[in-house]
């Protein structure tokens, strides 16, 4: 129920850091699969942030509540692709999206970690928040069961476009799962906007990482 207080969790250190000068490969295990993520130091989106770990862990642990099997899942700001890979392992039809400069590394990680499986083949596409949504993802064709977003709030200039993108894809029947590290007043202001725009509840908090995980659905009148 809406009165449930969020569960308090820790982000499990289930990865083995590898040190190298340029590309770091991080090794994770989710849903019984070993996932190897190549990070790039050149782009914000090419590093695994704590919100991605939190949501991956939550999806793995709450498969009955959020059953992704054969569901259509869109990830915005997919970054390195970890969350999209986990959603794919959980049986979803996944579309992972991000800015053009991030897509090469994102595609590499997703194809490398999903190529040997019998899951639905994931798709990687360009999506710039708030831009050309009607042209690239027309409502008549695209409807998603889940919209996933992790660590998307860090850059103040694009928050209105981010919210508009969430609103665009969050149709009746869509569940938005958003995990983010909360550090700045702008983060909390955006949280307030999300709560004013959607039916929103905090599912989980990871206090030592300052991460909150929200579930949001469209307000139906």
From TrEMBL:
<keyword id="KW-0489">Methyltransferase</keyword>
<protein>
    <submittedName>
        <fullName>MT21C methyltransferase</fullName>
    </submittedName>
</protein>
<dbReference type="Pfam" id="PF10294">
    <property type="entry name" value="Methyltransf_16"/>
</dbReference>
<keyword id="KW-0949">S-adenosyl-L-methionine</keyword>
<dbReference type="GO" id="GO:0008168">
    <property type="term" value="F:methyltransferase activity"/>
</dbReference>
<keyword id="KW-0808">Transferase</keyword>
<dbReference type="InterPro" id="IPR029063">
    <property type="entry name" value="SAM-dependent_MTases_sf"/>
</dbReference>
<dbReference type="InterPro" id="IPR019410">
    <property type="entry name" value="Methyltransf_16"/>
</dbReference>
<dbReference type="GO" id="GO:0032259">
    <property type="term" value="P:methylation"/>
</dbReference>
């Amino acid at each position: 129920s809406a009165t449930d207080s969020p569960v308090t969790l820790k982000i499990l250190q289930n990865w083995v850091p590898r040190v190298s000068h340029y590309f770091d490969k991080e090794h994770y295990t989710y849903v019984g699969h070993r996932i190897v993520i190549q990070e790039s130091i050149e782009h914000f989106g090419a590093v695994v942030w704590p919100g991605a770990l939190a949501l991956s862990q939550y999806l793995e642990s709450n498969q009955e509540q959020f059953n992704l099997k054969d569901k259509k899942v869109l990830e915005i700001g997919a970054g390195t692709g970890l969350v999209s890979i986990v959603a794919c392992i959980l049986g979803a039809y996944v579309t992972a999206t991000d800015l053009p400069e991030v897509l090469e590394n994102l595609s590499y990680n997703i194809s490398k970690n999903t190529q040997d499986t019998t899951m639905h083949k994931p798709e990687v596409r360009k999506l710039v928040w708030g831009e050309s949504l009607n042209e690239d993802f027309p409502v008549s064709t695209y409807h998603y069961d889940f919209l996933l977003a992790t660590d998307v709030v860090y850059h103040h200039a694009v928050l209105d476009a981010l919210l508009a993108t969430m609103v665009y894809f969050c149709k009746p029947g869509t569940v938005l799962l958003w995990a983010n590290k909360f550090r700045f007043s702008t983060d909390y202001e955006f949280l307030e906007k999300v709560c004013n725009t959607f039916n929103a509840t905090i599912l989980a908090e990871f206090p030592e990482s300052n991460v909150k995980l929200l579930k949001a659905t469209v307000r139906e009148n």
